[in-house]
Fold:
Amino acid sequence: MKTSTVVALSVGTVATGLLAYAIYFDHRRRNDPNFRKSLRREHRRQAKAAKEETEAHGVLQREAIKAAMAEAKEEGFPTDAEEKETFFMSEVSRGEQLCQEGPELAVEAALCFYKALKVYPQPRSLISIYDNTVPKPVLDILAEMIASDPSIPVGLGSGPPSDSGAAGVE
Structure:
């Protein structure tokens, strides 16, 4: 026998075996109730593990947000008009740069935008600008920061912030 014939027979045998296993697995999946139950159980277990991992990530992210906000408040914010303008521009440019570097820096980028928002004289207009320019993951983190800071007036009305607790940030 030639080498090419032996290789062709080997490949054919392996392909036939894989096809037979696929047919057997499909038949078993469709007809064996215990096998279907075990597949469903495994699927549920994996979905539950993924959900728990997502929730744990969310908790860690919220803790990181709280820590970053506390650090920003400790550092303080400028009070002079020129200092505010310089601070605003530097934080916005730093936030944009962090957004470009990747999603792993989303909290840091959102913190930069939050600091800029704190010194901006009209936060509502800046939030609408952020809605159009900031990536969604960073915007979601920023919205969480804004929601937890009552000193930023972002209510739906045009007057001062109310005690109703309703925030106009989405």
Summary: Confidence is low (pLDDT under 50) at residues 157-170.
